[in-house]
Amino acid sequence: MEVAIGMALWLKGIILLTCLERDVSSSPIQNGTMKEIIVQLHNLKNPKQLSCNSSMVWQVNFGKEKLCAALEVLNNVTDCPEIDRLRRNMNHLLANSTRNENCLKVQDTQIQLSRFLKDLLTFLQKSIRNEGILKSSLGNFTKA
Questions:
Q1: Which one-letter DSSP state was computed for residue 111?
Q2: Kindly report the CA angle at 29 between 28 and 32, in degrees rounded to 5?
Q3: Is the pLDDT of residue 11 over 50?
């Protein structure tokens, strides 16, 4: 009886350590990626920096749509090397969770790419402030 209880506790400890390792090890990568995304968006705020600023993209209602809708919009922009790193980091952050999913539900209004990037930056900053998502790793990038 005591051996069975000891084995159960040992097994429970192994499972707990495995779960903790997964949570702790993935967090710094996501934090670093989110920080890079915010830095890139901050650097792209000036429309003059974008050779493709005249590109029109679907507006995303970040209050209702998933973050993968932003990635879907970015993936539809062509001939814009300034957003390539941003697109790669968004792909990395969202990983394979959106591979076969159509995230952009409403496509009724188009805006300039620079406006979209500014809206995305504002949304991410507000999300981090309000929900505390990855806040400690972002430093001054959460201040408007």
A1: E
A2: 80
A3: yes
Rounded distance, CA 99 to CA 141, Å?
29
Residue 65: both structure tokens together: 């749509």
Would you state the pLDDT for residue 110? 92
Please provide the size of the chain in residues: 144
**Quick check: helix, strand or coil at residue 112?**
strand
The CATH architecture that domain 28-142 belongs to is Up-down Bundle (1.20)
Among residues 32, 33, 28, which one has the least CA distance to residue 91? 33
At 27, list the tokens: 């967090």
Any idea where the domains of the chain sit in the sequence? 28-142
Question: Structure pTM?
Answer: 0.66
Picking from 129, 74, 67, the residue whose alpha carbon sits closest to that of residue 98 is 67
pLDDT in tens, 39-89: 999 888 777 778 888 889 999 988 787 788 888 899 889 888 999 999 999
pLDDT tens for each residue of 38-52: 999 988 877 777 888
Q: What are phi and psi of 132, to 5 degrees?
A: 70, 20
